[in-house]
Amino acid sequence: MKQIIIGVIIVALVSLPLAGCTISVSCTTETTELERIEIELDEAIALSQEGEIAFITVGNEELLITTLDGRELKAFVGSLTLIELQELGFILPSDVEVDRGD
């Protein structure tokens, strides 16, 4: 009888770390940040010229873009301002919302 109880305890002790591993693996695979696809600036300009942009956020050195079909993109713009982007051909239609991160 003692051997059976010892066997059950050993199985329980071996199973606990495995259960902990499973929990920690599933927790670490979840992402809380929104993943965006990085595109080149010329691609962002082309999207704007085609009228494909639904929402823009101008951040620190990057342009965060949500397209009309729901894609989440980002383009590195460095220290370029919106005026400089427009001079490069970026079209900012009046009905597009812009969040400057204020």
Structural description of this entry:
With 102 residues, this protein is α/β, with parallel strands linked by helices. The protein has 2 domains: 1-30; 37-99, Signal recognition particle alu RNA binding heterodimer, srp9/1 (2-Layer Sandwich). The protein has helices spanning 2-29, 41-49, 82-87; strands at residues 37-39, 53-58, 62-67, 72-76, 97-99. Strands 1-4-3-2-5 form a 5-stranded mixed beta sheet. It is globular and about 25 Å long. Mean pLDDT is 73; it is low at 16-33.
Strand order, sheet with most strands: 1-4-3-2-5
Percent of residues in beta strands: 15-25%
Supply the CATH architecture of the largest domain. 2-Layer Sandwich
Number of domains: 2
Describe the structure in brief.
With 102 residues, the chain is α/β, with parallel strands linked by helices. The protein has helices spanning 2-29, 41-49, 82-87, and strands at residues 37-39, 53-58, 62-67, 72-76, 97-99.
Can you tag this structure with a few keywords?
single chain, alpha/beta, Signal recognition particle alu RNA binding heterodimer, srp9/1, 3 helices, 5 strands, globular
